Amino acid sequence: MHRALGDLHVREMNELGAEIRRLNAEVKEAATKNRELISNGKAREKALAHARVGYVAEAEVAAKVKEAVDRVNAAERAAKRAQSEVDELVEVLNGKAKELEDVVEAHKAELEAASKAKTSELADVHAKELEALKKAHAAELELERETSKGTILALQKEKTTFEAFVREASRQLLGSCDYVETATPKECLQTATTSVIECAADILAALQYLSPPERLPHDAQSVFKAVSDLPVVVDWLRRSACRVSATMALSMVLAHYPEGLDLEEVTAGFPSETGEFDVAEVLRLMGLVRPYVDRVLAVADLETHQVSMTAPEDLDKAEQKPQDFPANRLFAAAASKELTTYPSRSTRPSSRSAPMEWRSPLKQG
Question: Which of 30, 177, 225, 365 could make an S-S bridge to 54, C-beta 3.0–4.6 Å?
Answer without folding.
Answer: 30
